[in-house]
Amino acid sequence: MTQTQVKKCHFCLNQISDVDYKDITTLQNFTNSYGQILPRRRTGVCSKHQRKLANAVKRARMMALLLFTNR
Predict the structure, then answer these.
(1) Within 13 Å, how many C-alpha atoms sit on residue 10's CB side?
(2) Residue 35 lies in a domain
(3) Distance (Å, rounded) from C-alpha 18 to C-alpha 12?
(4) What is the pLDDT of residues 16-70, one digit of tens each?
(5) Which residues form a coiled coil (predicted)?
(6) E strand or H helix at 57, and its extent?
(7) Nearest to 57 by CA among 43, 38, 71, 41
(8) Long-range contacts from 67-71, C-beta under 8 angstroms, 24+ separation
(9) Count of domains for the chain
């Protein structure tokens, strides 16, 4: 059997309390090539920061900082 490596939360490790919607480079790391928000099991983010991340991505889309879809 192969053991899967447990991913640690990026925001907890770096002691980042709030996810900023203006930090586009960080938000793009948690979206796929089509602009969809990646799930927790893929990114390793805890549930608290996943909710904040989703809200930040949605807010950045509304402010036209991120595209809704990337084609």
Answers:
(1) 15
(2) yes
(3) 10
(4) 989 999 999 999 999 999 999 999 999 999 999 999 999 999 999 999 999 888 7
(5) none
(6) helix 47-62
(7) 38
(8) 67/35, 68/35, 69/34, 69/35, 70/33, 70/34, 70/35, 71/34
(9) 1
